[in-house]
Design brief:
alpha/beta; 7-stranded mixed β-sheet; 9 strands; DNA-binding
Amino acid sequence: MQDGNGSGSESLDWNTDDEVDIRSETETSSHPTLPTLSGAIIGNGEASTSNSASRTMLIAHFVGMGFSDKLVSKAIDENGEGDTESILNTLLTYSSLENSPEDEEQCNINSEPSSSDFNETFVDDYNDNFLDEDSDADSWGENEVEVKIKTEPDSALATLSEKDNKLLALASMGYTREEASTAMERCGQEASILVLTDFICAAQVAREQDCYLPEETKRIYNGSNPMKKRKLIEMCKKKVGAEDTIRLPNPMIGFGVPSQPLEDFRRSLPEAAKGPPYFYYENVALAPKGVWDTISRFLYEIEPEFVDSKYFSATARKRGYVHNLPIKNRFPLIPLPPLTIHQAFPLTRKWWPAWDPRDKLNCIQTAIGSAKLTERIRSALERYDNDPPESVQKFVIEQCRKWNLVWVGRNKVAPLEPDEVEMLLGFPKNHTRGGGISRTDRYKSLGNSFQVDTVAYHLSVLKDIFPNGINMLSLFSGIGGAEVALHRLGIKLKNVVSIEKSKVNRDIVRSWWEQTNQTGNLIDFDDVQQFDVDRVVQIINNIGGFDLVVGGSPCNNLAGSNRVSRDGLEGKESALFYDYFRILDLVKCVMRSRE
DNA sequence: CGCATTATGAGTTGCAGG
DNA sequence: CCTGCAACTCATAATGCG
């Protein structure tokens, strides 16, 4: 996806002066802005008139959190007085749509919204609750949360948030509110972000060139004519200019790897990006076009650090990391892991043909090569006493690369074993073994995980900053790559709040936590979408704040190996990136309000 | 139903060579 | 500048078996 980045384009006039939007008090910015709560405009608090007592209380409550009087009234009108959760959601959406990078410091969430309610002994409560599994998400603050959810139909919530998400995303891309809503009107609310941006882009081009009638434009963007669509997108790219799209570095060493530390490298973070808390976000580097531009724009315009884990391991793993950590004085985990196939698997050397030039494995994925394939390879090679002809060599090497096969006997290749994958990714042996987990699930969980040495290298700078340990919020924890990395760095884990959908993964982390005799608290949840303001405030009041927020959101719809649903950042699972951003920004605001 | 097995390309990038 | 080619990719869904 090539998004339309408004800045730097004079000819297209992305931001018209006569646009009508809700940020009328501030000057129009020509820069694509972050949809952050941190950047919310704080109203000057007009006196509200003719309100019931409860309504006045309600308004005061939200105004106390930093929202303007006018906005709060509007939100209450839309949602009714009874449903504070929906009101808050609406307010957050409005705030996000308001663009005001100049006012980043004005986040005035009241740190004590009825603090007596929150200062109960929650830690004790959930330590008990965790013992009865699967009820974790609901066993919390039942009296409050349950009721709210039941009064609001799920479908309504989902529709609202989906629509808002799209508006939000479009706003973040620098489109005006008018363009966004027009596009949604014309393409329908079910239209994907791609379709919407295409529509806007096409409209721009049409306006520019005056050669497409509206009806024609509409027809083209109903998906009937892919050639013309592609051509139009190309034209848009030319117009917008590709100079500000994120490109992958070559070699992919980010801000340095142990063998090439980039000693004197400095970077300046945008003010809004600085902590607390520190945060660390991860996803696949080779995502569809435009994805990393969007991710970076949401995550405070921080430039992603793209690193291939082949500099830390015998297997490649090209990933992008967005974080606000210092990068000076990083150090790697000891012992240094093997960096070549030969070092990692000495026994394969005996069978490794001279005509297979590989010394690194490709990316570990979630599925392995079939026995049928390895058998085809064996029988193809068996016909020759010496080296096979070049055509056969080419076929075999191609398949070995594709499926990450290693030589385990004469003419015999095989996929990696789960424990070998564990080693390559930096996990302790048998990390994913036992406890009722199937072999298939082991491959899947490992294939979706961090490379521990790589992540540890980035997180190592925290050791001096937090000599007494850290509180961590871990989203999409998986099998606990970040937790393992910190533990191996010798950074004490005081409180770890972990959110992970898969029960087998939660079990793996819980098991590792017990096996390693952790002295801190591991608190887990299963759904990021239900992790709302109340919960964040409750937890922060209890543990005193987070030092680090880590997470790699789902890559399903971004990953190249997905033939079926590589739908980009708006895909079913990958769209959970926006929940990472939402929760991070929430934590940021609550933390700032407690200063 | 759980688990294992298998088949299923496209999108993107880099690079060499016109 | 362009074109062709090689390389690579945190996956999904259908099927069969016990």
